[in-house]
Amino acid sequence: PAVLLCTAARASEEPSTVDFDVRPGGEVHSFSRSLGDYTCTFTYSAQGGTNEQWQMNIGVNEDNQLFSCSIWRPQGKSYLFFTQFEAEVKGAKIEYAMAYSQAAVGGQSDIPLKKEEFKITETKVSHREGEFRFELSKLMIVARTPRDEL
């Protein structure tokens, strides 16, 4: 998985990092970005606190085989209470994904969610109803793009 992340980070098209607000209030919100044929969409519902500044980074590696999407709170820990989350990729199939309750910042390490708190399908990473403990600060996805065979 680490090799996939490094490979995906060296993008042929300029990777794109965009700031967005994660808003509490219990309503379902979505934030989406596309790069070429690939799209990453983060859908969530959160409670408590005020808006938090988050970032989404998307990129494609140099041979166009891997699409990466990372969604995180740059301050490391979110103080919002997430009632649901889902990150979906279009145009590629997930090869590796991980969700974290705390993102690495200031010498701290990423703290992954427990495996039973979330689920991964071919195109989505999402909370697992009844198991997810409402903490989310980072999502990482590396997806394999379809190859055109000659």
Automatic annotation (TrEMBL):
A cellular component term, taken from the record's GO annotations: extracellular space
Write down a Pfam family by its short name: UPF0556
**Which example biological process does GO assign this protein?**
positive regulation of endothelial cell proliferation
Listed InterPro entries: MYDGF
Q: Which domain of life is it from?
A: Eukaryota
* Alphabetical list of PANTHER family matching this protein: MYELOID-DERIVED GROWTH FACTOR, MYELOID-DERIVED GROWTH FACTOR MYDGF
Write the protein's name. MYDGF factor
Organism of this sequence: Zapornia atra
Taxonomic classification, please? Eukaryota, Metazoa, Chordata, Craniata, Vertebrata
Gene that this polypeptide is encoded by: Mydgf
